[in-house]
Amino acid sequence: MLLFSILNAVIDLGEEIIKAKGLGLPITYREIFLIIGNSGLMDKKLCKRVAELMYFRNLLAHEYYSFDKNKIFSLYQRLYLMEGFIREAKRILKE
What we know:
The chain is mostly helical.
C-alpha cells in the first residue's frame, strides 16, 4: 500500500503541474508525465521513466493479486525516479 500511495502522490503532483502551467488535460495517468516531459519543464527521459511506472500503479490498484515479491522489489528499486520527479516538481511549482 505504501508504494501505491507514493505513486498516487506523484500523480497528484503531476496533475498540479499540468494545471498550474496550463498544459492541457491528460486522459491517462501515464499521459500526465508525457505531457510534462514534452513541455520542456522537466527532463523528458525522467518523465518517460516515471510514466512507465504507472503500469505498476494500475497493477496495484486493479490486479494486486498478481503482484509478487519480484514486482514489488522492481518497483522499490525505481523509487529514485519518483524522488527525482518530486524534486523537479517542487522547483517547477515554486516558479
